[in-house]
Design goal:
Layout: E1 2-6, H1 11-26, E2 30-36, E3 51-54, H2 65-88, E4 92-95, H3 102-110, E5 114-119, H4 126-131, E6 137-140, H5 143-146, E7 156-158, H6 172-179, E8 186-191, H7 198-209, E9 217-222, H8 228-238, E10 242-245, H9 251-257, E11 260-263, H10 267-276, E12 280-282, H11 291-300, E13 305-307, H12 315-327, H13 329-338, H14 347-356
Parallel strand pairs: 1-2, 1-4, 2-3, 4-5, 5-6, 6-7, 8-9, 8-11, 9-10, 11-12, 12-13
Helix pairs in contact: 1-14, 2-3, 6-9, 7-8, 7-12, 12-13
Amino acid sequence: MRILIVTGSSGGHIFPAMALREELNNSSQEVLLVLPLKSRRDKLSDSTGEIKYIHTAVLTLALSRKNLAGLWFFLWGAWESLRIVLKFKPEVVVGFGSLNTLALVFWAWLFRIKTIIHEQNVICGRANSLLAKLVDKVAVSFSQTCGSLNISPERVVLTGNPLRKEMERVDKNEALNFFKLKAGKFTILITGGSQGAHRLNAVCLEALSAYPRKDALQLIHICGTQDFSRLASGYAAAGVACKLFEFLPEMQYAYSVADLIICRAGATTIAELQRFRIPAILIPYPFAYAHQLANAQILAKPKAALIISDQELTSEKISAQITQFLNDPQKLEFMRQAYTEFGDLEATKLLAKEVLTAV
């Protein structure tokens, strides 16, 4: 079977797409992955197998020179998408959301090729909301999404969010050795997602540099490229024990050693937290239709995580929460146990099954 997978450029789109592709490759299918052109230089797209790249654009409703240029790149990408469909002749096309996937999934629908889209977030994105009316099936990560799509229930399937196979817990001592960290210290993982998060980086640096009990802590901070130098010098000057990374492919080690995570609330992050059952302080990204807030509430409702809004995020709040956790280890254990409310869907296998039975 020839299967084409197309996705946007963020880690939240690419990681589940790559997980599905790996599963399908294991069943000896012919799989082509289509990524935005800018992902050619991105560590997220490192992968084995054939990849095609298309031009993409950011479009708004405003009339501007930038938007006109964006429209040109969007049409260029649509033409490239058509050529890919005609040459590869897929039997199934799977889209993982974002504007970048619109044209290719549309061409597949027009040529009566079987189509499936996957929505990672609780709130369906604009591209997937449009495509949901056309495609044969919509796979969703959360049951809360099912009723909001305004399509027949038979076309919606709950699969969960596919995770890469390496996203499995490793022995804690092995994880400590991987980072050269000390046993017995309270380990905090900080990450803003695949692209980093400037505000989160800045507030955590301020909070932890001034924290009075620094000797009790050790950090793993994944900060993106932009803030790396400033954080490296800031933590070193403050005497904070921190392992700093622009990007960390081996996230399973970080998740396996962390006592607490401070992070955004992207869909892939939520799925990974559910897998590793890590107590979390979530700071949802405040834009993009506040979809991260809806994601965060999935974990906050059973008290597996607490939410601090981006507007209310301060170094004092971060410090106060860390102190509470240090003083009350039982609170962390209660949060870990709250994850038992979530079933462990084998999302990658479930989605692969939908793809393989689509024709």
